[in-house]
Design a protein that fits this description.
Number of strands: 10
Number of helices: 9
Distance between the termini: 30 Å
Helix content: 40-55%
Strand content: 15-25%
Order of helices and strands: HHHEEHEHEHEEEEEHHEH
Radius of gyration: 18 Å
């Protein structure tokens, strides 16, 4: 890897400015369209976010390498590791599903509005007294036929490992849709290359947003970067019927996802 290769991968101001301009134009154009679609409860409100995320992924230079088979029929509770806001774009481009997010996101400037327009389910993860209501909110969406995406780590990681899963929200997996148990599908999301250069520990923070990182500088760096390869692995789906309790289900999903991340990070074939 030469100095020029590294400089190209780490980006350019011109590329960043162009991408940011196109992103804002695309987003501002589609916000009112999605707002009307959500207000009218149109099927377009489910389809438009997928198109939006696919366009954003292309705009940001994200190459998505997909392994495994996604469940084709819903409702499904997809569970994934989480290292960056870019995971929203990656999974949003691949899944006809809404996200489950912490309640603080609803109050974020600009991105909170985008989350609401994407029909995100907001939960207060620290309030034990509201767990039942949150479980019901999630369950109602699933029973209505909507698939959801859950990040059970509760926070974002550095992308090199998978944190332990919080099992509380897996309680919704005990619901039956009709007479069938809810399908749960684990997904591993791992950034692996930057402009063809293996990311490794040094480059992965250009994708991962975690800890006390400031959002605006990190986002500006992302707009400037060269193309990034992100590997997405769909693991075999499961149901609560195969486990003694929700914690065992959460542990199984965590192990499957952690193994997928470890294989992608090391370059080993998936098990």
């Amino acid at each position: 890897m030469t100095t020029d290769d590294t400089a190209r991968a780490l980006g350019s101001v011109g590329r960043g400015a162009l991408r940011l301009t196109l992103y804002l134009l695309l987003t501002l154009l589609l916000i009112p369209v999605q707002g009307v679609a959500v207000g009218l409860r149109s099927p377009l409100s489910r389809r438009l976010p997928i198109l939006y995320h696919r366009l954003c992924a292309r705009l940001l230079g994200l190459e998505l390498v997909v392994r495994g088979e996604r469940m084709g029929s819903g409702p499904v509770l997809f569970v994934s590791n989480h290292s960056s806001y870019l995971d929203i774009t990656v999974l949003g481009a691949l899944l006809p599903a809404s996200f489950v997010a912490k309640s603080e996101v609803a109050g974020w400037p600009f991105f909170g509005l985008l989350a609401k327009l994407s029909r995100t389910v907001f939960v207060e993860r620290r309030a034990r007294s509201s767990v039942g209501r949150q479980r019901d909110d999630i369950g109602d969406r699933l029973e209505a036929g909507d698939s959801l995406i859950l990040f059970p780590e509760g926070t974002s990681s550095d992308g090199n490992r998978t944190l332990p899963f919080k099992s509380a929200l897996f309680a919704v997996a005990s619901r039956r849709i009709g007479d069938q148990p809810l399908t749960v599908q684990p997904i591993s999301v791992t950034p692996t290359r930057l402009d063809g250069i293996p990311m490794g520990v040094a480059f992965r923070p250009f994708y991962a947003w975690y800890g006390d990182m400031d959002l605006a500088p990190h986002l500006w760096q992302v707009f400037q970067l060269g193309g990034m390869t992100v590997e997405v692995e769909f693991h075999p789906p499961v149901t609560i019927d195969g486990f003694p309790n929700r914690k065992a289900l959460a542990d199984h999903c965590q192990r499957s996802i952690a193994q997928g991340v470890a294989c992608a990070v090391s370059g080993r074939p998936a098990q």
